[in-house]
Amino acid sequence: MLAAIEVSTRISSVALLDLITGEELAEVHLPADWESSVTLIPAMESLLSQKGAGPQDLDAVAVAIGPGSFTGIRVGIATAEGLCLPSNLLAFGIPTLDALAENLRNAELQGEALALIDAQRGECYVGHYLIDPDQIRALDPPRILKPEQLLAELKGRAWIVGPGALKYEREIREALGAQGIFAFTALHQPSAMSVARLAYRHWQAGERPTLENLHPLYLRPPSVDEK
Q: Which letter does DSSP use for residue 214 in this model?
């Protein structure tokens, strides 16, 4: 069984997936006003209990590694480490922008896509993807861009998804015009189940990562480090 954690953006979630069958077992989203560092482990324990399982039944953990909230990324990775260490579980680090692109694929929205997360300072963390029925493919490395710079990234019409898209919707619509197609509202939040699906595909491909491979994905240093 695989446990997945998404806490790199405002709304945290945890999920369970069967590594043998790929069945999506359960997912729960935590209220935005709750402290994720306090609620993540109880939420995971509750999810496992609902399935008649416990931490000893886990074989792997997947966690969103960013970009996103620096505090959230640290909390998510620390929680994953706490789950993995006692039994040396597999540890999959999934970029948060990939998880947003997976939201589109799972909703059968295909083609070019931009996944956007608020980077503050009037900028977004940007992932540029091609969405196929069975996979997502990054067309460019993730980067930080202002909304008015997005048009130069596109080859044609593209899906626009992510919390950054919601925050800068007016600016993005002005910049992209008819080339930007905003996804359904329910798809704009990264989810633990999307993290789980991506980890499952890595597992199917034979990847067996350990905690040594688990690192945060920061596209800029935390502001405290800059100072």
A: -
Global pTM reads 0.94
| Domains of the chain in sequence order | 2-95+190-226 (3.30.420.40), 97-187 (3.30.420.40)
CA separation for the pair 92, 63 (Å, rounded): 6
The per-residue pLDDT for range 38-61, each reduced to its tens digit, is 778 888 999 999 999 999 999 999
CB-based contacts of 26: which residues, under 8 Å, 6+ apart?
15, 16, 47, 50, 51
**Inter-axis angle of helices 192-204 and 96-106, nearest 10:** 90
**Sole residue written with tokens 């502001």:** 223
Q: Are 8 and 186 in contact (CB under 8 A)?
A: no
CA distance linking residue 55 with residue 48, whole number of Å: 7
> Are the C-beta atoms of 2 and 60 separated by less than 8 Å?
yes
